[in-house]
Amino acid sequence: MTAASERPRCAHCRRVLPKQATGRPRRFCSQACRQWNWVGQQRARELQLSDEELVMTRSELDAIHDELYVLACAVDDVDRDLAALGARAPARELRRVLDWLLDAARPLRERELGSRA
Hints:
The protein is mostly helical. It has helices at about 30-45, 60-85, 90-110. The protein folds into two domains: about 5-45; about 60-110. The relative contact order is 0.10.
């Protein structure tokens, strides 16, 4: 099975696209993503931005930095806990550290940049 990182992704939100048996390859996961991508391209032309430039609010950038910091701390904590537990760690303890790491990673996983609430 192909790893998710090697599968095609939506040109707007970067979610992995579902597999297709036939037809033209999809570029977007939904009509909403297609439309937001078009709006973004129009706005980028107005601002004369290159494909390598991105506009985001300071609060959005700060929130991403905060979530990355929490994830980095959780990875450090899990590394330390696993080293302390040793090779024969009980399943309950392994599950505890895994849950800790997943709780730290979920906000980034669930994040949708530029989503309109």
